[in-house]
Fold this protein.
Amino acid sequence: MADSLAAQRRRAVSEPGLVKWGLLAIALIYLALFLVLPLASVYAQALADGFGHFFSAIQDPDTLSAIRLTLLVAVIAVPLNVVFGLAAAWTVAKFDFRGKSVLITLIDLPFSVSPVVSGLIYVLMFGAQGWLGPWLQAHDIQIIFTVSGIVLATIFVTFPFVARELIPLMQQQGSEEEEAAIVLGASGWQTFWRVTLPNVKWGLLYGVLLCNARAMGEFGAVSVVSGHIRGETLTMPLQVEMLYNDYDFVGAFAVASLLSLLALVTLTLKSLLEWRFLRSSRQSTL
Amino acid sequence: MPGYGLTLGYTLTYLSLIVLIPLAGLLLRPVGLGWQGFWNVVSAPRVVAALELSFGAALVAAAVNAIFGGIVAWVLVRYEFPGRRIVDALVDLPFALPTAVAGIALTALYAPNGWLGSWLEPMGIKVAFTRLGIMVALTFIGLPFVVRTLEPVLQDLDPEFEEAAATLGAGRLQTFLRVVLPAILPALLTGVALAFARGVGEYGSVIFIAGNMPMISEIAPLLIVVKLEQYDYAGAAAVGVAMLLISFLLLLLINLLQRWKTAQGST
């Protein structure tokens, strides 16, 4: 009897079998069409002429220099945003001050700016006709169309990632452990390294992961400030565009397949972090 | 607690240097044009067409994602099936995949000789290098937003309300429309607004598939790039400011929706 009652309750809050299978089929077909097929086509196109062509495409000198540049940009941009994220989270979570919610909104601002506009603001600032253009020219400094411009634009588009992971996490953890450490005689830095950092390490890693994926994959903002100089100011996504416009499809998709691999590794690590350490379901917005 | 001056000072300095001052530089740029000059740039037919296309295509894509993303979220939260976790993880792919890669992959799929294009073309449906292609790219980009904002709300939805509705004689569809939908509506709209805002500014995934014909398939961010290539800095800035102002209005709307969502959740 009890069994059939439970079955009745289950039936009351679920759909008839046919509807259920229909919805499941629609969802899976939709995801296959929009996610799996594009991903599969990247690898199919990259290997269209066999592995030999794929490997020689990757070993092209311009492509290798694009890979080096992408790594360099990420190595500069990500740590800078980590330091900022830690500082911002510390100040927001540990202290009360006026305008705190405005500050949090401003930190998220770069996410609501179009990538092209993100590049544009630096061209308007540092470009030849920019606000600081004449001064920079007089001192023989060039930022736009150089690696510095690419780094700046990348820092802008990845600005919020670490901060927005750490702020809610540190707010939720409170300051009790840090206060205890300080009462016991630890200095501020000791408290930070020994207490705070270990407490937020998984959230920090999560933020770094997303920040890095975007830093290596950014296209629009970087495209505006890059100047597209082959072998010099092309990151991997820009190299993809360059090869594609040259009708070198195997080359373009070979570089694209490396970036897809990065995306898949990022997704795998992200899911692992979510399942193992950060149980709460979160809203991710890259 | 130590570190207040250091961390707040560092946060404000870094925020100002990287974000606030450059953005202010953009907002101030069209001042040189004067109000009339700004209006002339923004109301030029090519600019209006590009803005309309960016907003229109983003709206269609967000609507598609409202329906199908809603179904995906429902299936992922309510049904058990093998591979559910992998499918759930895969939903974030458009966040993780560089936009240029998405752009060339979608173009290859929907080109006349592509896996999907070679099926659609004989039926008279052209996707690549048309406005439809832009909508496909924006649907891809916006896919995770609706799913990810709906999932937690669906998880927290107490089945007791649905049981009560069923006990009182409501059919499953009626229960969904009268009980479930009102509860998830704020989250659904938030997801749609987020997808829409992202779609309006999207560049990388669109330009490969769009065809980029002025007045027909040229999106607003591309027009900024075109103006920059012609050294029309003030014009580029004017279009950028127009886009920025509209996205701030959207951001405001999203914040209001979030507030409604939390209000809904607390009752």
